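Posting this for the archive.
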Amino acid sequence: MIVASYNKGTFVPFIVEQVEALCKLGVTIDYFGIEGKGFIGYMRNLPALRKKINSFHPDLIHAHYGLSGLFANLQRKVPVITTYHGSDINDHKVRPLSKLCMRLSRYNIFVSQATVNLIRPSQRYALIPCGVDLTELQLTEKADARKKMGLQIDKRYVLFAGAFDNPVKNATLAKEAASLLSDVNLLELKGYSREEVTLLMCAVDAFLLTSHTEGSPQVVKEAMACGCPIVSVDVGDVRERLQMVDGCFVADDRSPETLAELLKKAFDFCGRTNGRERIKEQKLTNDKVAERLKNLYSQLTKESE
């Protein structure tokens, strides 16, 4: 059973895609969505969680994010696996609660080595980044993608890796870097459907990530799958993901000047990167990640028998 936040009336797409891949492998899964924030908000969900457990009879609970894992562990009937996605480790206010969750969980999953190094877990754990689906839409030619998204053919576009008003994404740095270049349109990644995001990644000249902190950012893997040139600060597992990806660059510092120079190199690349092939080589497609998770589920279920 999956336990995760449901405050926006839906589960985040990468969790849903991971579940769909697991279901294709024969794993029977149901969801429990947590609605509400803070200690009291989470506690109000506990009776419903217990009711769900009694009706679904799961062998395991897989919780996503530390606070969801801590909540799932308030019941001790079903073993809990918790995946930590970065913000639950990088935020010093949330980190102590994630540490408590690690002690209570039967098994812990981290999405990047950077978070493992930061938290130094002593309990049983695995490093399993979330995967991405590879689709035909990701192969859309730039001109076709621009036409579908209403972008001009002769303009230069850079897609920013998030909403401008999200302080963690550090839009100020991205805007400063873009301002050093002439005729660059910086697009905000906000308010688009999954299909539109894919088309934007096919349409733009480069993808730019300037976050203060990250775990294993899905948007980088999604941009790789689209063959989009990427420029990023050294955060989370981005440097590892972009190793040997032509047309993609990780900055050695966080100056606007460095990022602007790397954007020039990305523009000069003028083509589709080999990011899609690197996703396959790194076994970061959802089907490969699902195989690892299914094996882990089987192992822990046998131990509980």
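The radius of gyration is 20 Å. The chain has two domains: 2-131+285-304, 137-281.
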